[in-house]
Amino acid sequence: MWFFARDPVRDFPFELSPEPPEGSPPGPWILHRGRKKATGSLVSIFVYDVKPGAEEQTQVAKAAFKRLKTLRHPNILAYIDGLETEKCLHVVTEAVTPLGMYLKARVDAGGLKEQELSWGLHQIVKALSFLVNDCNLIHNNVCMAAVFVDRAGEWKLGGLDYMYSAQGNGGGPPRKGIPELEQYDPPELTDNSSRVVREKWSADMWRLGCLIWEVFNGPLPRAAALRNPGKIPKSLVPHYCELVGANPKVRPNPARFLQNCQAPGGFMNNRFVETNLFLEEIQIKEPAEKQKFFQELSKSLDSFPEDFCRHKVLPQLLTAFEFGNAGAVVLTPLFKVGKFLSAEEYQQKIIPVVVKMFSSTDRAMRIRLLQQMEQFIQYLDEPTVNTQIFPHVVHGFLDTNPAIREQTVKSMLLLAPKLNEANLNVELMKHFARLQAKDEQGPIRCNTTVCLGKIGSYLSASTRHRVLTSAFSRATKDPFAPSRVAGVLGFAATHNLYSMNDCAHKILPVLCGLTVDPEKSVRDQAFKALRSFLSKLESVSEDPTQLAEVEKDVHAASSPGMGGAAASWAGWAVTGVSSLTSKLIRAHPMATQAETNVPQRPVPEGHPAPTPTPSCATPTTSSRWEMQEDKDTTEDSSTADRWDDEDWGSLEQEAESVLAQQDDWSTRGQAGVAGQVSHPEHKSPESDWSNWEAEGSWEQGWQEPSSAESPPEGTRLASEYNWGGPESNDKGDPFAALSVRSGTQPRPESDSWGEDNWEGLETESRQAKAELARKKREERRREMEAKRAEKKAAKGPMKLGARKLD
């Protein structure tokens, strides 16, 4: 019966890479790349093949195997696993690259910075100090071939083949027999003089001097070249000279060498070395020290190597957040390091932490997340946003801190494309309605209007029809002047989402009222928008076949193609609380300034071309508005249509002036609402949102009694606007009797547009119905009081001790 022995190499949990071995350093070992079979993680595998007649080399290799397995230090090559058979030795370590190959690759890429070299040498000297002072071991092989670099750029000391005890327990140093390694031996060893007085570290410090020379100047041709420092930095030259001195007695201990180099002005006294030293001891640092360190870290990351940030700083940041309660201070450096990661690494390492951070109640954490959302929003998928992030973000709308409310509004520009139907069209609109109507901060109300204009294309068709006109109309009545400007610009930015009927009956009357606004910036934008909408209506009037083309997007489904890229939206948000109001809307993201020549009719410029979507109308491009062919009006209409060319500007100055002269919004809210309800001009735009209920609805504060005979949907009687003026056949100047509205008070019921009002029977019927409803409520109240009185009188006086049941 045959028995087959199992091959230990085949059963080894690590396998060699099929790629050819790396440039192995001089010595008995050959360095291969490898990976762990179970996980696929990369490792390095040092392989020694046992050869007959090479007993001495085999003993050296086995000794190195044993030393590496038992020595554990952060600056010594980390042992993972090993295999020893009669035919070979396998030593598995962390994935590393020989220092010579690493330096050559970095030189080709631009070279190593001095701070990286200082930290690398610091690690090698620290490893030598550990061996000499703590373990009483002499490395006996310090050179370029014994140093390796891991993926974080950390230098590791290897090459333990010729190590021996400083106490002489295991005999003298083993013979190398390799000329490439023997050239680094100090001169006192070649003299074979036992009378030379030296310290146990003297030989290794000489070899350290040779390593420093090679790091800065390349391969060492001969020992005499050490006399010329070459490219060694001036701050290191004095200490280098101590290492390669002829007298071994004066060569410093590795620990003292580190102290000398870290002195003020020393070669190893820099921010990079200090950062690494702090990270090595971060677990024993005080919380206050950690906070200060993370606050200053983000400033330094730009000058640090990319590999160092990815593989050393990032794990420490994640650990500090997970277990060290570092809080919001880790966010800035965390997102800076995240820029170096691939999309897959970002999903694995950063996103889980970000999702967990959103559930934090720490205000500093929440506001920093909102401020830096642009850096990670592209890595978030829609289910994560809707189920794990948005429910926490919406709490910011109700926060008492204005800065958090403002940042929450801004963040919607980035979150809107990823929100589902319920969150976007229902939940978010409720919060926006409440903020625009009730927030005491004018800049936040302005922010809300701007944000709504930017995300309008993502709303469903029914929500757009119900929300946009009413919201922008409300904004035009805001006491805060930049909010009124934002309302006008909101109409302009979403011009393709309104039907011709809405433009004529709902939008133009609102814009006309703003032509007499006390603020010139509001009037200017109102005139621009008026010219644009009038040009649009006139072009359809001249050629009714364009109606389907112009109204193409009105009933179209929400489409990301109709809105701007999220990256460009972030620059449009206002900074109301921090610096009042800056750039409100610079330009609509999809507005392109290219002239399009269409045969047989001129087409104006600068209108967005949305993604085609099915609708009842013939699919044509709504961005092309036909203009009048009359040469006298072509210039005006083309100019009017170019609102996207305009800088929709910085309202910083207007905001400051308005805040200086206006009362607080919260103290004027009731009066403003009352004035708007009583004025016929303020009725129709808000009446479409009748189904928004509860406190957060857009309709609250703007409700009015419905008329007995409502006009057809989408129409609006001229009498509703109370323009007030002469008879309809009077061709006189309607501005003759105009009295300019003072301050920011709502317009009274008669706007001094003339002595006669254009109120019709419909207005009277509405007032009559309101009076009738009031009388019914009063009668009902009196009936209820009478019933209570009768019930109390029927029971008579209560008896002593009787229990009152009602």
Automatic annotation (TrEMBL):
Where located?
A: Cytoplasm, Cytoskeleton, Microtubule organizing center, Centrosome; Endoplasmic reticulum-Golgi intermediate compartment; Golgi apparatus, cis-Golgi network
Q: Region (Disordered) spans which residues?
A: 592-806
A Gene Ontology biological process in which this protein takes part is: vesicle-mediated transport
| Biased segments, Acidic residues type | 643-655, 752-762
Any single GO molecular-function term of the entry would be:
ATP binding
Q: Which SUPFAM superfamilies match?
A: ARM repeat (SSF48371), Protein kinase-like (PK-like) (SSF56112)
- Major place of localization? cytoplasm
Q: Where is the composition biased (Pro residues)?
A: 601-613
Tagged with keyword Cytoplasm: yes
Which keywords annotate this record?
Answer: Coiled coil, Cytoplasm, Cytoskeleton, ER-Golgi transport, Golgi apparatus, Kinase, Phosphoprotein, Repeat, Transferase, Transport
Per the record, where are the segments of Low complexity compositional bias?
Answer: 614-623
Report the residue ranges that make up the Protein kinase domain in this protein. 14-314
Basic and acidic residues biased stretches: 763-773, 780-793
Q: Which stretches does UniProt call biased (Polar residues)?
A: 659-669
Q: Name one GO cellular component term.
A: centrosome
The record's similarity note reads: Belongs to the protein kinase superfamily.
Q: What does this chain do?
A: Regulates COPI-mediated retrograde protein traffic at the interface between the Golgi apparatus and the endoplasmic reticulum. Involved in the maintenance of the Golgi apparatus morphology.
Subunit: Homooligomer. Interacts with GORAB. Interacts with COPA, COPB1 and COPB2. Interacts with AP2B1.
The identity of this protein, by name, is N-terminal kinase-like protein
**Organism for this UniProt entry:** Sciurus carolinensis (Eastern gray squirrel)
